[in-house]
Description:
Blueprint: E1 2-3, E2 60-64, E3 70-75, E4 83-89, H1 103-113, H2 123-129, E5 138-142, E6 147-153, H3 158-173, H4 179-195, H5 199-211, H6 226-230, H7 234-244, E7 250-256, H8 260-271, E8 301-308, E9 315-323, H9 331-356, E10 361-371, E11 375-384, H10 389-405, H11 410-430, H12 436-449, E12 453-454, H13 456-465, H14 472-482, E13 487-494, H15 502-510, E14 542-545, E15 552-555, E16 560-566, E17 574-580, H16 592-601, H17 612-618, E18 627-630, E19 635-641, H18 646-658, H19 664-678, H20 685-697, H21 709-714, H22 717-729, E20 733-739, H23 743-752, E21 780-785, E22 792-799, H24 807-831, E23 839-843, E24 853-860, H25 865-882, H26 886-903, H27 907-914, H28 922-925, H29 930-935, H30 939-950, E25 956-962, E26 972-974
Amino acid sequence: MTFxxxxxxxxxxxxxxxxxxxxxxxxxxxxxxxADQPQYARPDDPWIYRGTDIPEDENWLFGELPTxxxxxxxxxxxxxxxxxxxxRIDAGSLHENDAERGYAHLLEHMVFRESSTFGPGEAIxxxxxxxxxxxxxxxxxxxxxxxxxxxxxxxxxxTTMDDSVRRFAGMVAAPTLSSANLAADLPIVLAERRESAxxxxxxxxxxxxxxxxxxxxxxxxxxxxxxALEAATQESVRAFHRRWYRPENAVVVLVGDAxxxxxxxxxxxxxxxxxxxxxxxxxxxxxxxxxxxxxxGENPVGELTVIxxxxxxxxxxxxxxxxxxxxxxxxxxxxxNLLGSVxxxxxxxxxxxxxxxxxxxxxxxxxxDKISRSVDGTFVTFAPLTEDWEAALVDVRGVIADALAxxxxxxxxxxxxxxxxxxxxxxxEQSRIQAGxxxxxxxxxxxxxxxxxxxxxxxxxxxxSIAPRFTPEQVxxxxxxxxQGEVIRGVMMVPAPGEVTEAELRTALSAPVVASDxxxxxxxxxxxxxxxxxxxxxxxxxxxxxxxxxxxRLTFANGVRALILGRDNEPGRVTVRVRFGDGMAGVAADEGxxxxxxxxxxxxxxxxxLGQNDLDRLAADLKVGFDFDIGEGAxxxxxxxRQEDLxxxxxxxxxxxxxxxxxxxxxxxARASALIAYESYGRDPNGVLNRDLEWLLHDRDPxxxxxxxxxxRAATPEQFRAVWERLLAQGPVEVDVFGDIDRQATIxxxxxxxxxxxxxxxxxxxxxxxxxxxxxxxxxTTLTHSGDPDQAxxxxxxxxxxxxxxxxxxxxxxxxxxxxxxxxxxxLRERAGAAYTPFATSSWPLDxxxxxxxxxxxxxxxxxxxxxxxxxxxxxxxLATNGPTADELERVIEPARQYLLxxxxxxxxxxxxxxxxxxxxxxxxxxxxxxxxxxxxxPAELQALxxxxxxxxxxxxxxxxxxxxxxxxPAAAAAGR
Length: 977
């Protein structure tokens, strides 16, 4: 049973006191006419509910054409005026024969290339002109079991909806599978395959081969094989399409702001003529996991693999495998699933408790998953802290054995049940603002797993109906079911040969296990009412209207300021964001390692008398969150909550500033995690970029350097505390509370929490390098990786500025970067087939006066590095000389315009625009022009920006090449660390 949320009108027109442009849209609802009479809609026999007692979600209208094509349509206006179309073909990589490995994915590309409804290369630009961004709104995915084509079309009306359905019908039913188009798409697919290669794919391939040994899934990754792809011909690709792309294998989902009769009629009109050729080919047998010869109930350990990947962290996953069986998706089946989910949560909580208490593993988890209609498996995964993987395995198996041997406590069950109940209640509250795109995805996901769909109300009702079953005995029974199975397989990854053999792994997995109850936690839940107060409550000294949607600014005597904005179009959803201090600008030159570890450990180090486990128990029946981010000019806490839990959410954040705890265990765990991760960075171009790019773009500022092993080992919990005590205590605080709030209750909660903080102290000046940007020129800084010899990455970057005075300019620079990105895509991908995902992006930090940049990035073969730099420089030069064409500009303006129209219906859009405005009036001053700055941008303006930033100085070049090729890399200047 898959979630489907009810959706109703949730669009709140803008009523602004500031002279903002009228960017709100009129109602887009398309009424049914006499012509909208679908013949094959079956409200009395919805195909997805056949054979089940799950209550039907009557918001959906289901139909089935005589050809076998099934459809589901639904009215939805979230976001307003958007249409979400999905065409799912029940054919993925598992449907390929040995000579076709990769064809399903190749065909996904070719469907977009040319068809009966699009000329060569016309599809993506066409939808961009309608406001659909490539990759986000227009996309497709290939899995082992299906290929799904997606379109989320903004600003949709009857004409554009109908035409888009017509065009997608032509794309999937009649693509132009010519030799010329094959020649155009094959290099792109091979480039995608190359970019996804390396250690991660090798590990994935070996893992899949082990877990699914003897089944089709073992050797049919959607990315395919180079041999099969390079041997593809026009005839062989057409044969694959003819065999599987048939209406009997298709499901069309259409969600939009229109009467369901209108949507159903569109589907029927444009898909009715699609016919399959010849008899229907049955899907192949995906196979079942089979116990190996000689295995029995006493020793069921089967296939095992030890993967050696230098630099990769140690990890072990073993699985209890059962055959996948198509179930009767009824209410009792889902009740059992919910019992299993609670049982899994109890086991995972214990595994986490053991890790926190000094266990021999960094993390561990249990998950039951039904994979690709091939396996029903329970997977146990952990990462040992050291080379002593056997001790970690004993720890993990001991926790699981205890869960199997003895029932959990009622307190453990109640904590898990409370967390689920909060999540289900929240889903019900959010149901009427569920996005149409997610609703459409839910149907295709349900079809994929061969189950029905249900509303959040149904799920909550079913969950609460089984409250009497949440007993220690029944949860233990569900736990035992998780670990029942006749096939056990495992994969271990190690960084060096000789650490472990398959025989040693088999012995360890087959050894008797001793149950350990150390991880049980029966401590009573903590009550917020028992916690120490932040301080003496203090009401704001001033409350002033911002002039935007009723937003207000609150000023407190202690230096704290707050912005509050109430909107009732997102029921039960409140975002709290706390900005404080100076961010990276307040970190000293020698404190970079503590900033890095702070992102991993600060939240978990506790508050007041509470440690991590206390906080988990405290929040079990609450909707609260605690994310932490370090920005260029501010630190940020953020949590998603609801009005009834708002004061608790504010308390958690305020207490972190007022009474932080310094449990060293989270620090030690974060350091262990960073040490394990560091060695993996140099194994492929992406890893190198993740490790070094920010450091290099900041002209080797040591604060931005990823800490190496020696630096991490030298870091101490005591110094971590000293650094973060200073950073938490100083600088201004802005608290932003946006969403479905009660105004007075919010002000009162702020008064009791942030208003009660001690006076904030000024930021202490620290020794830090001056902000800079690396010098550009024809020579590229060269870094190396130790991975595959055909992988490289290249980047060219130009410095921009920063600061809130440049907000208007930053919006137009985003458009310039998108034009640059489209040209890269057209040049390197569509014409040359040299790269799969070249792109350009811009950054303009608002919290500091500099530090922005625009860069273009590509993954590419090492021999093509000069071609990328030439292409990028040519684009930059031409944009500065001639500017973008009118059509190029429209292809980026319309998606940006439609994004604004969609995003401004949510409170987080306004939060993102107004954050910082409590202290920086520019955020407010430049808000009125946000739509105009995008909508009225001209080619001349973007040309002027290209002249100012892209041609005024040479771009800085970076290339990441295979280590063996570094001495021969073109235009290279080595970079040391």
